[in-house]
Each structure stands twice: as structure tokens, then as C-alpha cells.
Amino acid sequence: MPPEPPLLLTDQAIEQAARDFLCAATDPQRRFVLGIAGIAASGKSTLAERIAAAANAHQPNSAAFIPMDGFHLLNAQLIEQGWKPRKGAPFTYDAEAYVDVLRRYREASAVGGYPVYCRKTHEPVPSAEHITPDARLIVTEGQYLLCPETPWSKLGEILDECWWLDVTPEQAREWLMKRDTAVGRSVEEAEAKYQRNDRLNTEFVLAARREPDRVVRWPGSD
């Protein structure tokens, strides 16, 4: 059987996917957990937020978004280890905690807080958001969701479905440069950051990954 063609992420496709995921969340003991993987700046968080918002518009409080960025190590820890210039690399996350939180909240009876990343302080904020009893769908995203190495590989047992957001490294680099210059970096600083960190992370992600359940693309990104 030929592989399923990539899903084009139109507004209608995103809204339909959100409804489909809610329909799939039929097990009263477990929530449905969707993962969105892809390289840096591919639009993973944008897609995750839109799916969760569409689900909540269809059925209020039915979806929660747990981003991987909330599990960054603290800057003080990165500085102590000499890892600050590589922030965003796989070893700069508390991956075990991330896996444990998703495993815990997959259980329908589990409620409580989870961390999110603050773009002002550039630090994770503990229990900034909460899972409520009404939540039936959890959406998460991150570069390393399909990484075959432990502990990332444990996500294969937790995610009910994992999408790969297919964006070329060239397009993602362009979006990264725009994002970094928008927050005050010069073009030269943004390029240096890309070469010493983002490029390495992109190459790591693309070098080896488990097969996704579905490949998706933004309109016009071919």
C-alpha cells in the first residue's frame, strides 16, 4: 500500500482533525495524547495551539496543550554545565520529567499542574497551567518526540498518534532568523546562533527518527 500523502494544514483540515481526535478519545480511563514533532521553527507550537483551540471551541475545556519547552532545564543549571549556548539541544531538557508528566496525565483521573516556558524570563514556570477533569485530549509538541534514544523513545508508548510537521531546513532557518531578529538580535548574531546550535539540533533530528503516524505540511511550504 502506498504511503498516505501529507495532510495539508488548511483551517478546515485542522478543525476536522481536532474533532476526529475528540471522537477517538473514547476510553474512559485514558486521555488521547497527540504529539507533533518537527525541526525548530517548523510551526509545531502554532499547530498544537490551533488543534487544542479548535477542540475547545467544539467542546469547551476538552483539550490541553503541554509544550515540551516547559521542561527546559533552568538557565542556572545550563550555565553550571556549560550548556547555555546549546539551549534547545536534547540534553538541555528534563526529558524524564516530560515523559513522566505525559504518562501521568494520560490517565483520565489525573489532574494537576504542568510547567510552561516564559518567553520574557526565558525560564520554565512550574504549574503555570493545569489539566482539568474535563480534558479528554492532550496535545504536545517538540523536536525530539520521534527520537529513538532513551528517554525520548518512551514516548512511543504514550502518544496515541504522532505527526511529523514537514518543513525544509531552509524554510525553518528563514523563519528562525526572522524570529531571532524580531527579539533584538542582529542578523549576524542570529546567524551565529543558528550555526552553533539550531543547525546542529536540526541535523540531529533529521539524522534518525522513528516513523510518524502522519506527515503534515503547511500550505505553500512544499
The overall strand count is 8
Fraction of residues in β-strands = 15-25%
Mean pLDDT comes to: 96
Q: Structural class of the secondary elements? A: alpha/beta
What is the 3D form? globular
Major sheet, described briefly? 6 strands, parallel
Element order: H for helix, E for strand? EHEHEHHEEEEHHE
Distance between the termini: 23 Å
Uncertain regions spanning at least 5 consecutive residues: none
The helical percent reads 25-40%
* Biggest sheet: strand arrangement: 1-8-7-2-6-3
Q: How many H/I helical runs?
A: 6
Classify the oligomer: single chain
> Taking Cα atoms only, what radius of gyration do you get, to the nearest Å?
17 Å
Summarize the helices and strands and which ones pair or pack.
Elements: E1 7-8, H1 11-24, E2 32-37, H2 44-58, E3 63-67, H3 75-81, H4 95-106, E4 112-118, E5 123-131, E6 137-142, E7 161-165, H5 169-182, H6 187-207, E8 214-217
Parallel strand pairs: 1-8, 2-6, 2-7, 3-6, 7-8
Antiparallel strand pairs: 4-5
